[in-house]
Design a protein that fits this description.
It is a single chain. By secondary structure, this protein is of the alpha+beta class. It has two domains: 41-89 and 178-191, Ribosomal protein S4/S9, N-terminal domain (Ribosomal Protein S4 Delta 41, Chain A, domain 1); 92-170, RNA-binding S4 domain (Structural Genomics Hypothetical 15.5 Kd Protein In mrcA-pckA Intergenic Region, Chain A, Roll), CATH 3.10.290. The chain is 33% helix and 9% strand. The protein is built from six helices and five strands, in the order αααααβββββα. A five-stranded antiparallel beta sheet has the order 2-1-3-5-4, covered by helices on one side. Helix 2 (62-74) packs across helix 3 and helix 4 (91-98) packs across helix 5 (104-112).
């Protein structure tokens, strides 16, 4: 007569499936229908995600972003490029691109607290659109904590010694960020 076998102990936790590669974690999701595949993202979903990514990156609310889009749609040229050019020209973004601050949110806060001056006047509105010839600098001279991760952009002249930023031209195609698919944004608002 064969000897009785004792149940073999496994390295899995109670309720864990045998094929899991991470201890204590189930394969698939939680719940009765966890093994079903995730649905494919629709074209509308992709457009919405792209619009949200761009809007959140520039730190705007929907109504403000929509106004920028509507204004860009009225201009001649590609609506997507005009939209990005307008977003890049905002004062908070210009301060961020120049490397005076670490994030756009920090730029917005410092501008709203009147730490910057534009053409010799203190400003508190982050959405001002800069134009060629504008000069941006701190209101009070102070030690500037330069953002070392900031890339040099052709449309801004940054003087690191004085902390002065001069807008030399409008941002063009090569200066615009490429991480946004503006065509999907245009399609989203064209519905």
């Amino acid at each position: 007569m064969p000897a009785p076998t004792t149940p073999q102990r496994t390295n899995s936790a109670p309720g864990q499936r045998q094929g899991s590669t991470v201890p204590g974690q189930r394969q698939g999701g939680v719940g009765q229908r966890s093994n079903k595949r995730q649905k494919k993202v629709t074209e509308y979903g992709q457009q919405l995600q792209e619009k949200q990514k761009t809007r959140n990156s520039y730190g705007m609310r929907e109504k403000q972003f929509r106004k920028y889009f509507d204004a860009a749609a009225k201009f001649h040229g590609t609506t997507g490029s005009v939209l990005l050019q307008t977003l890049e020209r905002r004062l908070d973004n210009t301060v961020f691109r120049a490397g005076l601050v670490k994030t756009r949110a920090q730029a917005r806060q410092l501008i709203s607290h009147r730490h910057f001056q534009l053409n010799g006047h203190r400003v508190s509105v982050a959405s001002i659109l800069v134009k060629p010839g504008d000069v941006i600098e701190y209101y009070k001279k102070r030690e500037i904590d330069w953002n070392e991760d900031a890339h040099d952009v052709d449309w801004l002249k940054v003087e690191k010694k004085t902390g002065k930023v001069t807008v030399t031209s409008l941002p063009e195609g090569s200066d615009l960020p490429i991480e946004f698919d503006t065509q999907k944004i245009v399609e989203f608002y064209s519905r």
